[in-house]
Structure formats: structure tokens, C-alpha cells
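Per your request, structure below.
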């Protein structure tokens, strides 16, 4: 079935006259009749009742007309919106990011994009890595910022930066001055990312503790980096977080010690669809890569 079959069908369905429909379509009547017969044969359904006096739609034909009319209206809507997006008149661009990204960078990105594409509606979502990958594969977001390897043939990954790790603790409840004293924290309560929420990241944190000679006593878990830091501030434990978040936490009660001895880093990447060649996506990726 081709688009022309549907156009020819609609013309006949609207005119209920093959002669008038052929004139409307600028074709002769015999080819038009053949196209309708081909369509009916493909559908295995009779669409018109024809006799010498009139042409009528069958019940199947009435249903088909309704659906094809809606289809063409939707195609028109898609065409118009595609043109508008191409001209940057309107549209929507959805960006997902992990909670440990410095929020000021995201704000700068949106400001930059809004200057370049003033009529585009930009939406932000805080989403864990695994869900971002699925959302991008399904076309529910246009760009993501994640913290783990990507194993998807549908996604293009751009390494943004490599991040180290830092111990975070409450200065009023935990006494520690340097990285070499971390072994003394083996009996302390730890606050970690939920294993089901961020399995790769959870495993990395266990590796870090193993490097310093102990297995952490994980009592509290959270799905958001800011929640973890807040739990630490409230004296409910200590944690290990990406060093990047230190920029966003200048609370005098909270201390950070960068873990420099362990050669373990985490990649922060920008992900986009391999089929996405839009100017907005290119501009967004370029801006972040040059920050």
C-alpha cells in the first residue's frame, strides 16, 4: 500500500464520483479505478458499492475513510512541526542528568541553548544512568549525562570528563585529617547509593573501601547525591562521593578528603542517539565538551 492509494481513495470517498475524483486528481478515470481495485484487493475488503447511478461507501469504506482522514491530518501536523523545529521556531529538547553533576553547569548550558534557539522548550530531568540509556533508546530524551559505560548500539557516547572520589564526613562527629587515616573508619556507619538504583557505582564504592583495607558497614542508602550529603551532615554516617560535587557543597560542617592513592576514576559522559544530527544536539554537546 502506497500513499497515493490513500489519496486516490479519499478523493473518491469525498466526491462519491469517479469522474469528479479523477478531475480533482488530474488523472484519467481508468487508472484511478485500477488504483482503488488494487487497494481493495490488498485490504481484502470492498470499500465502495458501484453501479451505473451512484457510488457509495461500504461500512468498511466509511471506517477506512475516517481513519485515513485522521492519518493525513496527523501527517500534516508532523510536517508542519518538523518544519518549525528545523527553523527553530518551536519544539522540545529533553535533557536528563545524574544528581552528582554540578547544577551550575546545567544552568549555563540551558542559558546558552536558549540564546541560540529561543523558541525551543528545554526540559530537564534528574534520572539515574540506567534509566537514561533506556529513555534515550526509546526517544523519550534527546540527551543524557551519565556516569558509567554505555553498552548500546543505538547510542553515541562523548566522554565529558573523568572524576575522582572523595570521602565526605561530618566534621563534628568524625575525626579524620588525612587519607592515610581512612582505615580508622572501618567501624563507622556508611551511607551509599542504592545498589539497585546505581549498581555500577555501588560496586565502585565497594572497590574503593577494599583498597583501603575494609568492608564498609552500609546502614543507610539513598538515590540522590544531595540526599547522601544531607544524611552525612545530619550525622547519620560517612560516604564516598564523586569529587566533582565538592564544588556544590561549601557547608562548614562537612569535610571532604580526596582519595588520591587509589587509581580509580569514573567517566562522566554525554550520550545522544546515533541517529540524531540536529543542530540543537550538536550545540549542546559542543558547549559541554568545551566547558
Amino acid at each position: 500500500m502506497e500513499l497515493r492509494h490513500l489519496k486516490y481513495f479519499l478523493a473518491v470517498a469525498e466526491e462519491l464520483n469517479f469522474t469528479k475524483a479523477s478531475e480533482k486528481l488530474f488523472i484519467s478515470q481508468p487508472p484511478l479505478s485500477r488504483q482503488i481495485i488494487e487497494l481493495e484487493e490488498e485490504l481484502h475488503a470492498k470499500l465502495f458499492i458501484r453501479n451505473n447511478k451512484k457510488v457509495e461507501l461500504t461500512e468498511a469504506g466509511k471506517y477506512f475513510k475516517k481513519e485515513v482522514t485522521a492519518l493525513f491530518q496527523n501527517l500534516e501536523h508532523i510536517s508542519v512541526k518538523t518544519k518549525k523545529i528545523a527553523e527553530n521556531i518551536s519544539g522540545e529538547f529533553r535533557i536528563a542528568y545524574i544528581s552528582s553533576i554540578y547544577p551550575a553547569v546545567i544552568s549555563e548550558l540551558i542559558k546558552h541553548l536558549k540564546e541560540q534557539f529561543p523558541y525551543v522548550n528545554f526540559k530537564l530531568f534528574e534520572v539515574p544512568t540506567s534509566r537514561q540509556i533506556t529513555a534515550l533508546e526509546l526517544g523519550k530524551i534527546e540527551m543524557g549525562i551519565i556516569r558509567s559505560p554505555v553498552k548500546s548500539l543505538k547510542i553515541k557516547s562523548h566522554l565529558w570528563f573523568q572524576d575522582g572520589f572523595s570521602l565526605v564526613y561530618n566534621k563534628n562527629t568524625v575525626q579524620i585529617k588525612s587519607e592515610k587515616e581512612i582505615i580508622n573508619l572501618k567501624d563507622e556507619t556508611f551511607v551509599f547509593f542504592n545498589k539497585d538504583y546505581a549498581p555500577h557505582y555501588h560496586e565502585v564504592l565497594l572497590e574503593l573501601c577494599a583498597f583501603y583495607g575494609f568492608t564498609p558497614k552500609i546502614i543507610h542508602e539513598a538515590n540522590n547525591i544531595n540526599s547522601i550529603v544531607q544524611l552525612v551532615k545530619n550525622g547519620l554516617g560517612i560516604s564516598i562521593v564523586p569529587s566533582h560535587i565538592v564544588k556544590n557543597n561549601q557547608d562548614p560542617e562537612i569535610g571532604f578528603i580526596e582519595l588520591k592513592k587509589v587509581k580509580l576514576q569514573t567517566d562522566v559522559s554525554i550520550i545522544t542517539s546515533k541517529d540524531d544530527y540536529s543542530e540543537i544536539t550538536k550545540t549542546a554537546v559542543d558547549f559541554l565538551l568545551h566547558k
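DSSP finds nine helices and twelve strands in the chain.

Regards,
D.
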